[in-house]
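Q: Sequence in, structure out?
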Amino acid sequence: MDEISIRKRLYADPVGVDNEVQQAIEAKPNIGQLARELNALNGDITKALHIDTPDNLAQRIILQQRLTNHRKQRQSRWYLALAASVVAIIGLSTSYVLLHHQYRTVADYAIAHVLHDGQDLIDHAKQHGKAYPLADINRLSKAVGVSFHTNALVDAKLELVAAEECFFDGMNSIHLVFSGIYADVTVLIIGPSDHLKQTAQFNYRHSKGVSRQYDNGRVIIFAHQNEPLDKWQQVIDKHIEWLI
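A: Exactly. Output:
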């Protein structure tokens, strides 16, 4: 076999050489040098094509899908509100219920809600230097038929970081953020929801949450994994009063 043919075969497949090509590599220094260079290049290409994926890639993709769905839900509410004046009430109700059934459990929706809205609420409060007296809780909580014994909350030395009315799966709800031992503690007060499956305890990365079912609604507490949520739950149980 002539040298040109050997070179062509090495360029085509530098790894899978037969006996004839191998003999040429051993007999001719220039062919041997070409074979080593092509093998080195082939190794570099193989390494470049081998990309390790992060350990939490699947979890990040799932979370991104949840947040994307959550943003679409928020945008859709505005369109529903604009259409309310021209659409029959029964049609609106059906569409609205179907829209918000993308989450099957309280935990799923709570995690997406806190990740999407929680930090914005805290940042807005800090940016405007707004103070939230505990008495403001009862002004907001009327929307969900709840009252707190605010004097007792003051005695418990709770610091309210931020508070606002919000929508939780299409229901009027209250989003409260307290200062915790390790990080901020989120308390969500929502009305009854038949299609969201109750989740008494749940975890997400370095956070954890609990959900308590009452006769007239739910209270969800979400915080750092080391936060003593049982003590927070005791404070809520002791000082909350459902008005309806």
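The chain is about 50% helix and 20% strand.
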